[in-house]
């Protein structure tokens, strides 16, 4: 069973729970229900609780300056009414942003460890950034305004999403699913979350499914491995059901103008610092002292290391603590054009000098804090590597132009997301986002990002696993799959490569069971919230900026006792239009079984628009609909004529009624 099923979120003092869960049961408005539906989003949910009584002397301590920690500070100020100077963020690194990074220059080479694909219904994320002043637009505009300006005028799509055979574009117009594969997906969507503990993707799906267009598109877009959590894949399918029909060409996605650090971290940290928030770098928090009384746990101190020396930060009885559990990018090993990265982390234990230590020590105190070893304990299963290419004009740039939607120098969408080589032993992908990717990037420089999923296979050209390769060798493997390896020397002379080997980058996807991840506010905790990618929420996925912000928001509202609810994920997963479009996409863009019957019934009614247009003309619809019925009921079935007659009468009746005055 899932954690939410075993330990449902209980209302406090008769009040609705802070974290809404639309899957908890049927919702119906009545006199006792003061709140709107649990998945309702939009302006009505933007209310700010008034009045807010500040607690005298209260301080907030936030461990981790990634998007979760920064968002916690934001909500403490905006909705919690705390003063910025009473909030302190602690971070091991010397720069804010956590996994949202972007650094370097044209001379030494740029580096981005990863990128983020985003969609429209990141409701909590956009709730923050519609109140964060824009990076470049004049005063009065927000980051959301800036983001919309870019994407509304430059739609994203890909013209070369899948490639093979050294430079040839593979047909990616459909998901390439057989009826067996489609049924496997439908059954997965119908399964209860409670029945999927510790089951892997490859344990459930047929071997042939893992060779389909769908799986190459899915795994390279979301970074799923075959041996990872089937439950998480299911949650992703529900979360992004509205984007299934845009999966092939990535037209359902939106991207920032610049890298994620400059686009989001810079404007948000600028706002927080203006409000007085303090960020202390070079501080590694490794444990929390607690007092326990009558099943209540209260943090009294933060144990940390500053400049290698032990220190203790006292936490007052009214103070609140927000702590990041685990880290996707902890222990990253770096390399460059001539040096392969050397991983310092063991396969099973990250060691005490690690961002996992805090969670490990919390887990020793009580089972309510989960099982971190389920996530950090298999580096071979959670690791992959990325390479950032800083390029000047070369045959590689010429090839890129062939595969791009717009000229890379135009400032508009370039590849429209990752391009994946389906016959790559590494499952290699690369992308070029809008350029410049950094605000100060020279006009004659392009930044490309490359990554692969399989770390234990020899390359097709370079006979080594990717982690054993230098930047030049990874560049050679890329050029091989692009069909330009014969021009490698000319390309290498104009390209700088920086490498990042990340041992825990998909640790959050490792197979898990109920209780393996703690809730945002674990049971009995009075002043502690856990945030980030390794905590349990009702229905949301992980590995998104949206999920990080959601955990921070839940934590702030709960610890401060704010009379507000954090809505469940966007109700798009229940929208009949999205379900119908998704069914059509899964059926390789052909009408799914029964779809023509729906058209026959609903045509010329108010609800006709919910159905995707049919590929055939109206005059053949009756014939095709009857063929569908004969398939479902049998050609000789007496029911066939009865049903056809009923459809005709129903349709004619609706049409006649619509003409009555």
TrEMBL record:
Database matches in Gene3D superfamilies: 3.30.9.80, FAD/NAD(P)-binding domain (3.50.50.60)
Pfam family, one: MCRA
GO-annotated molecular function: FAD binding; oleate hydratase activity
GO biological process annotation, one example: fatty acid metabolic process
Entry-linked NCBIfam families: PRK13977.1
Protein name: Oleate hydratase
